[in-house]
Amino acid sequence: MLKVTHQQTHKTMKYIYIALISMLILASCKAKKSEYMKVAGFAQGTSYHITYENSNNKDYSADIDSILKAFDRSLSIYDTASIITRVNNNDPTVEVDDWFVNVFKVSADVNTVSEGAFDITVGPVVRAWGFGNAPVARHDTAYIDSLLQYVGMDKVKLEGRKIIKKSPGVKLDVNALAQGYSVDVVCDFFKDKGIKNYLVEIGGEVRGKGTNARDKFWQIGIDRPSDGNMEPGKDLEAIIEINNKALATSGNYRKYFVENGVKYSHEINPKTGFPARNTLLSATVVCDDCITADAWATAFMVMGIDKSKEILSKLKGIEVYFVYTDEQGAYAIFSSTGMKKNIVEQD
């Protein structure tokens, strides 16, 4: 029979007491959050808004600004000295960097799976329609047809650090996924710094990890895709909650023009050279990284609702929220199974 002395009981109670105190201290530390910092600025011809838990007690605004400026020097077609501009100008000495390589590889993959609906060689056609950095739009049928000879991922390839083009007329435009990728780049910076809670938004493309200052998962508003809804967040179609995910939306309700009573959106079909004409009004994509979400949001807008559903069945890890018009011309919604779980009821 084991005999427990008074002294042993006292020691046991002492250890239990210390353990309980330690658990309370740990619980208290876990519950307490650091101050959340907000950073805003401009990059890639758009604005960015970033919120992060300042657990390191450091202001990273200068670092973020520096990263995004360096990113522009790689992939911005608006920077006359950027790597992509030099590629487009057929500079024989230019070698691409890791950012360019990643964008090119993702572009090629999405191009293949989307059956050509996503194509970064469509840049000259985009500018011809007045949606790029060309000074004057020119989109008569003959001119558009003349540009299609330079469109197609089969006309460009990556060999090491060199971009090889079949024709000098081939021009690359990665705007359809570069903003999303820049979001990922900033998130990678936070990961390196050990920041566990943040929300990065650049040009409307978003990626969030952890929770906000209220210890809630990040919630993102999806704008109603109606013509004239030019102020983000004013008129929402839905609110999506994300947990360590990225979100990108593409639509035809802000970047468009009307000519002779016809609406032309900025989503160009690489196969026809003309703006996509279908019933899909906006496509929101949620997945692990923002470069993928951004690229597929564009691809879906080009493909339209029916083809998008078909392709979606072949994709893994991608959730969608589509707004389109039905046969009667009324708003209709299609949400993937996983996306439905993340839709938050509006107040």
Task: Walk me through what this model shows.
The chain is an alpha+beta fold. The protein folds into two domains: 36-165, ApbE-like domains (T-fold), CATH 3.10.520.10; 217-344, T-fold (Roll). The chain has ten helices and 15 strands. It has helices spanning 6-31, 61-75, 83-88, 98-113, 123-128, 141-147, 175-192, 290-303, 305-312, 337-340; strands at residues 36-43, 46-53, 156-159, 162-165, 198-202, 205-209, 218-223, 236-242, 245-251, 256-259, 262-265, 280-287, 319-325, 331-335, 343-344. The strands form four sheets. Strands 1-2-5-6-9-12-13-14 form an eight-stranded antiparallel β-sheet. Helix 4 packs parallel to helix 8 (290-303) and helix 8 (290-303) crosses helix 9 (305-312).
At a glance:
This protein has two domains: 36-165, Roll (T-fold), CATH 3.10.520; 217-344, Roll (T-fold), CATH 3.10.520. It is 35% helix and 24% strand. It contains ten helices and 15 strands.
> How widely separated are the two ends?
66 Å
Kindly state the percentage of residues in helix: 25-40%
How much of the polypeptide forms β-strand, as a percent range?
15-25%
The radius of gyration computed from the alpha-carbon positions, rounded to a whole number of angstroms, is 25 Å
Overall SS class? alpha+beta
CATH topology of the largest domain: T-fold
What top-tier CATH class of the largest domain fits best? Alpha Beta
Return residue spans where pLDDT drops below 50 for at least 5 consecutive residues: 1-31
Number of strands: 15
Q: Could you state the order of secondary-structure elements as H and E?
A: HEEHHHHHEEHEEEEEEEEHHEEHE
Overall average residue pLDDT:
84
How many structural domains are formed by the residues? 2
